[in-house]
TrEMBL record:
Name of the protein: Aspartate-semialdehyde dehydrogenase
GO biological process annotation, one example: 'de novo' L-methionine biosynthetic process
Superkingdom of the source species: Bacteria
Domain Semialdehyde dehydrogenase NAD-binding: 6-121
Entry annotation: catalytic residues: C130, H243
InterPro entries per the UniProt record, alphabetical: Asp_semialdehyde_DH (IPR012080), Asp_semialdehyde_DH_beta (IPR005986), NAD(P)-bd_dom_sf (IPR036291), Semialdehyde_DH_NAD-bd (IPR000534), Semialdhyde_DH_dimer_dom (IPR012280)
Binding site for phosphate: R101
Length: 345
């Protein structure tokens, strides 16, 4: 008889939390018991799982008793408060926040890239930043063939990266503007509808915002290569869901675009979208709701003999967050890595 597991979703009512719920159901993850946790604000609400209404519970010390896997997506502060407690109670925490990503004791995993890192977990596994996951899926298959020396990325990030409330805010702002009213910004710092602005994460001393530094540091950790030079400019755009990225890669020697295309057409988690005649390439609207990262416009960088340009779009909530987390949970189950937990028949 196959095993099944007791799972808790921390942040179940959020944009990523509700996606986690849908993925666990659609991918038929072996669940013995499911606990849905959120803040006091959600007490009394229910969410549906496999046709059953499950009551949302406020998170407390006792929430993690008899839980094998915690899928956490309730922000860094909440993860810092509860992850240690959950691990002490015997659960493995797959954390979607940035709280533990750069901790050397915590594996940072994209299952298509570095699944082997899961073997070294000590109770917490970090799910990387969304833009980093999407970029890693497209760059890793090429990097494996020919190590990449330098990555220059520019991102076009949707409202979904700032959560469900930010998505609602863009809709409200759009209708306000269309009715001749002034848009109100409460979740994001400025109106995003009919606008764009540099990513709203805190600024670092280097003049890069934290989102940009996540792309630099997390990619190096996931690839296991501190030598790769990476620079990024992250921008919030008025797209509801799915991020886009323009990626410039520099290799030691020229990388033939047709060879790159061939490699990416077989790469796990990647779907090639390239119709040069119709000028049809990845778009956030077509990437929304899809598991794969859409990649296209693969071309020689005319400014550098060893440069390659590509364009990608990926669903930030799905592969950029919830799907990657569920894939990590599947990996733990498949490789029998829930050491701290008691899986039962
Ligand atoms: P709630 O809906 O009760 O506020 P998003 O990223 O879409 O904004 O979602 C954030 C998720 O994290 C929501 O499920 C939210 O619950 C949850 N959350 C936020 N703060 C806390 C907290 N202090 N304790 C538990 N859950 C929290």
């Amino acid at each position: 008889m196959s095993k099944s597991y007791r799972v808790a979703i921390l942040g179940a009512t959020g944009a990523v939390g509700t996606e986690l719920l849908e993925l666990l159901e659609n991918r038929d993850f072996p669940i013995a018991d499911l606990k849905l946790l959120a803040s006091e604000r959600s007490v009394g609400k229910t969410l549906k799982f496999k046709g059953e209404n499950i009551l949302i519970e406020p998170v407390s010390d006792r929430s993690f008793e008899n839980i094998d896997i915690v899928l956490a997506s309730a922000g860094g502060g909440t993860s810092k408060t509860w992850a240690g407690i959950a691990v002490a109670k015997g659960a493995v925490v797959i954390d979607n926040s940035s709280a533990f990503r750069m901790n050397p004791e915590v594996p940072l995993i994209v299952p298509e890239v570095n699944p082997q890192a899961a073997a070294h977990h000590k109770g917490i596994i970090a799910n990387p930043n969304c833009t980093t996951i999407l970029m890693a899926l497209a760059v890793w298959p090429l990097h494996k063939i020919k190590p990449v020396k330098r990555i220059v990325a520019a991102t076009y990030q949707s409202a979904s990266g700032a959560g469900a409330k930010a998505m609602e805010e863009v809709k409200t702002q759009t209708s306000a503007i269309l009715q001749g009213q002034l848009p109100v910004a409460q979740v994001l710092p400025y109106p995003l509808a009919f606008n764009l602005f540099p990513h709203n994460s805190p600024m670092t001393d280097l003049g890069y915002c934290e989102e940009e530094m996540k792309m630099v540091n997390e990619t190096r950790k996931i690839f296991g290569s501190q030598e790769i030079r990476i620079t990024a400019t992250c921008v919030r755009v008025p797209v509801l869901r799915a991020h886009s990225e323009a990626i410039n890669l520099e290799f030691e020697t020229p990388f033939n675009p047709d060879e790159a295309r061939e490699i990416l057409s077989h790469a796990p988690g990647v779907k090639l979208v390239e119709d040069w005649q119709a000028n049809h390439f990845p778009m956030p609207m077509e990437a929304s709701g899809q598991d794969e990262v859409l990649v296209g416009r693969i071309r020689q960088d005319i400014s550098h003999p060893c440069g390659l340009e590509l364009w990608l779009c990926g669903d930030q909530i799905r592969k950029g967050a919830a799907l990657n987390a569920v894939q990590i949970a599947e990996l733990l189950v498949e490789k029998n890595l829930l050491k701290l937990a008691t899986a039962y028949a």
